[in-house]
Fold this protein.
Amino acid sequence: GQEVYGTYSFIISMLAILSIFSLPGMETSLVKAFAKKRDGTLKLATKERLKFSLIGSLASLCIFFWYFSKGNSELSLAFLIISLLLPFKESLDLFSPFWTGKKDFKKRSIYTIVPTLVSTLAVAVTIYLGQSPALIVLSFMLSLSLVNLLFLALTLNQKENDETDPESIRFGKDLTVVSAISMLANNVDKIILWKFFGPIQLAIYSFAQTPIQQIQGAIPIKDLALPKVGSQDVSQIKDGLIKKFKKLFFVSVPAGIGAIALAPLFYKILLPQYVDSIAYFQVFSIVIILSPFILLESALLAEMKKREIYIMQISVPLIRILLFLLLIPFLAIWGVVLAIIISQIINGVLSYYFFKTL
């Protein structure tokens, strides 16, 4: 039911925050290293991520003891599972940036889609068989961990050399530090909603936001742009990137309008119990229209423009968190939606400004 899914959404948001310790910034920073054929960086970076993710496991163990002391067996069990599986679920998926850097988008698609499908199927079966958020978390994390381990092993067998790029690993750590606030901002909304309004309202919100994230994932601007831009001098292809940026709106605007128009039909057929999410989803679709700005942000990442990236990844999430705190208590779900759209617009303006100064 809605209450189970709302509680599951809360746990997954907490998992995402704990995952900050797994150095997620490396997923972006390593694309350039692999584009330069420094394949040994894959093994080195995976070891580094496994080591740091143990901090997240320890933090999850502390949360387990907290909920256990309060007599909440469901949440305590969920965080015990997270503490055991976090390093494997979060640290073994660098095969995706590897194949992105190699510009082998067929393998990248297979290696990215299959884990998602397997974990989605595992979660769906668990929901069908039982209504325990902890068991849903177990099926989600265990299935992803096993598939990621398989694909990492396959990728390691296909690397061409053992040359490493320590600078990319250092930059990945830097990106993680500054993106930590962003990751917090991307998940604290669900935690605030859960605390203020309960799991049912969180479930309604989650079913408005999740389809938007899936649509954005189907337009992989960053994944396509990073390896190509990363192998060139951005200052020399700046005019070409601006033209591509403008052309992308011919895709994003129809996609956003189409999502708004088709939303009522989509929810009534596939998610009839979540028709309350339709209005939120439709307003959220503005985020799809703004997606071309990701291209300009990718150019800044490829050039390793640390100052500009730090300003964006610190200021925008802080503004978003501030808006959450100001708006959610009074506007509930609408407060979250408005905060996210306003912060996305600010992020786009900053991306454009910093790109023009390159």
